[in-house]
Amino acid sequence: MVEVSQSGERSVDDTVLDAARDCVLAYGVRRTTMTDVARRASVSRMTVYRRWPDVQSLIGDLMSREWHQVLMAAAAAETDGSGRSRLVSRVVAVARELREHPLLCKIRDVDPEVLLPYLLDRRGNGQDEMLRFLTAALVAGHEDGSVRPGRPEVMARAVFLTTQSFVLSVRTVADDVPVAEFDRELALLVDGYLEPG
Length: 197
Known about the structure:
By secondary structure, the protein is mostly helical. Helices cover 72% and strands 0% of the residues. The chain contains eleven helices and no strands. Helix 1 (12-27) packs across helix 2 (34-41), helix 5 packs parallel to helix 9 (152-168) and helix 9 (152-168) runs antiparallel to helix 11 (179-194). The radius of gyration is 19 Å and the shape is elongated. It starts with 11 loop residues before the first helix and ends with a helix.
């Protein structure tokens, strides 16, 4: 989330997060230091340390911000149709954007161990936000009758797990299949899972 002051200037936090993103894209997570980030943001190291105790927490907030922006862009996209069709199109759009996101690509390719805790042990803020996004969309689908009955919180997790594999693991099975074909398959999977009766 970009904070803007009343004068229209961006917040120090956002400037630091931008600098952290630039450092990760240039060097990777392991080689990024708080000093690098402070220098690139043109702030003191103490300014950075006052907000984040270490690089890991800074990168966690950076990822949350970047994934939030992807979600907001998908939510803002105007789509017609039922709650289910809107959800399916947004899930596919988010999966495509995340799969091609420069930050996620850099982390996946250079520092994949950064992602492991979020895949094996715990959820991050960005994942929690995605689950809330999916749950709200499923509730809307229940209300218009386009989504089959079920607990939205559980269904959101199933859609999330499916989508996550299309974001992070598709390269392992793509071979010579164009990635766009996997987007169509994801849409069919999610649509079929949610379809009533």
